[in-house]
Request: fold
Amino acid sequence: MNNDLKQQQIARINIYALLSRLTMNEVDEGLLKSIEEDENILSFFPTYAKWKKRDEYDRVGLIQQYLNVDFTNLFLLHLIPYESFYTREDQMMETGGDNPVQAIFNAFEFNVALDKARVMSADHIGIELEFMYELCKAELRALEADDMIMATQLSQLQYGFMKDHIVEWAPMYLLSVKNEAGTAFYFDLADFALEFILSDFEGLNQLKENEYKYTV
Reply:
């Protein structure tokens, strides 16, 4: 069982890293090249793989003419990728110390450089996905050390964070991204992220009831 859990964690780590990176900053030429040349990753972007613009522009041209413009529209200007906007009754962003997500990050010493990440609040979708990435890495380390108590606690923390935060709002935001996307790349990214978040939450629920067997 431990080896299977390790392999699952490695896959989750890689996906959370990719999703966090792509939802927090514009794609660059090197990352786009890596996506296009890895069949496994490209399979998550089926519409982009067949996008006719790829035949008309090189990667730099695609990024400058289309992808950067779409990222700005979807993540910086017209849509709001922050949890508090979706969960507060007044639909106001909570950028101060009262943000419950920031309180969780502080409790676990997860430091967010907001200026470097170009986000206004800790409850940005990319930051929350990065937090999941860090928790997955910590769980993998626990599994490699055969520390099942710590692995269980970390899995429980992931389940709780997904249940109380990401699943509560990210699907709504990602559906809006799919509807508003002006490029095949960001349409696929939203579709991929939406499917992964929901399936990963179901996977965490199964672990809770079977392998790790904890109660919430």
Q: What stands out?
A: The chain has one domain: 2-209.
